[in-house]
Design a protein that fits this description.
By secondary structure, the protein is α+β, with helices and mostly antiparallel strands. The protein has helices at 2-13, 19-24, 29-33, 41-55, 71-78, 85-99, 126-148, 170-173, 202-209, 213-217, 226-236, 244-251, 255-264, 269-287, 292-298, 304-315, 319-326; strands spanning 103-110, 113-120, 154-158, 178-179, 185-190.
Length: 327
């Protein structure tokens, strides 16, 4: 409910009455005053949408100038023609700077991790700063998920403010490791999502914009990034995933879809099989005293020589050398 109180503060700052918006969201004055009170995702969506339209400000008072109603829809439309998510997010962040220069958004990649960060160039409105930063990152994350029609799990989220009394609520908005008192606001996720093609068109955008706040408030459930799912299936069911057809059945997709989607993510089934077999072989070599021949058989090789040759290509040393080096 702290976010509802921040929205009400914006109304008060503009000498406007928030009662209509609160009524639409079915939030009573008594609930608003309760320190431990909560609201549902649907209530947050209704309250935010009503406030943004009545105040004509999609920034909800956080920035030095209003972001007129429809601003974020315009940003979404401007990025819709991008070839992949990475380009779309970079365009979105760059275009956001046309709306306000109080903050600068950026998309960077550090190794396997993609980072969307918010740099505060000017002090944001104190009462709306927390809501503004949280809403901005949820907007980016929700839109990214919508663009590729996929849940994008967060590896972490950081905020440049002390942990608030309602810090637990952040776990619902930003599932994953949380850090407060950070240098800047940012979210982090697997960089491979940046390579996914956009799966939306103008018709889908028009439909989404009718309830645009839903993608900001609610978490996406479906994950289209197939590589982690394939790795997990190969590791958990080595005996049932020897062929593309068998693996596809485990994942409830066709073999053709399996190969096509892995290709879109820059991976191949054989490379993933090799990677999983290598990790399993490393574990057996380090944790057991099994002869190399038995390790080879356990990870799916018929002959010790072919296993040793493949292992050397993967790890740079022979299985025996790998085991000795650890010992």
């Amino acid at each position: 409910m702290a976010f509802a109180r921040a929205i009400v503060a914006t109304y008060r700052g503009h000498h406007m009455a928030p009662e209509g918006a609160l009524k639409q969201a079915q939030i009573t004055p008594a609930q608003l005053l309760e320190p431990e009170a909560r609201m549902t995702a649907r209530q947050m969506e209704l309250l935010s949408a009503a406030a943004m339209q009545e105040l004509d400000d999609e920034g909800l008072g956080a920035f030095g100038r209003k972001l007129p109603w429809g601003s974020y829809g315009m940003l979404a439309r401007a990025s819709l023609g991008a070839p992949d998510l990475g380009v779309a997010l970079k365009r979105w962040c760059r275009h956001h700077g046309l709306l306000t220069d109080d903050v600068a958004l950026a998309v960077t990649v550090a190794g396997p991790t993609a980072v969307v960060s918010v740099q505060e160039r000017r002090p944001l409105a104190p009462q709306q700063r927390e809501l503004g930063l949280a809403f901005l990152l949820r907007n980016v994350h929700g839109l990214a998920c919508w663009y590729v029609d996929s849940r994008i799990p967060l590896q972490g989220a950081s905020f440049p403010l002390p942990a608030p009394p309602h810090a637990q609520a952040y776990g619902y908005m930003f599932p994953g490791p949380l850090q407060f008192d950070a240098r800047q606001a940012e979210i982090r996720f697997d960089a491979r999502y940046l390579k996914l093609p956009l799966r939306r068109d103008e018709k889908a955008l028009a439909q989404m914009l009718q309830r645009a706040l839903a993608i900001t408030v609610l978490q996406y459930r479906r994950d289209r990034l197939l590589v982690p799912q394939v790795r997990q299936a190969l590791a958990a069911h080595p005996e049932s995933s020897h062929s593309a057809e068998a693996l596809a059945r485990l994942l409830n997709v066709s073999a053709r879809t399996l190969h096509r989607q892995l290709g879109e993510e820059g991976a191949s089934l054989q490379a993933l099989k090799d990677e999983v077999r290598l990790e399993r072989a490393k574990g057996l070599l380090l944790r057991t005293a099994k002869p190399v021949k038995q390790v080879a058989a356990a990870v799916g090789f018929r002959h010790e020589k072919s296993f040793s040759r493949a292992f050397r290509l993967w790890a740079g040393v022979s299985p025996s050398q790998f085991r000795k080096a650890d010992g």
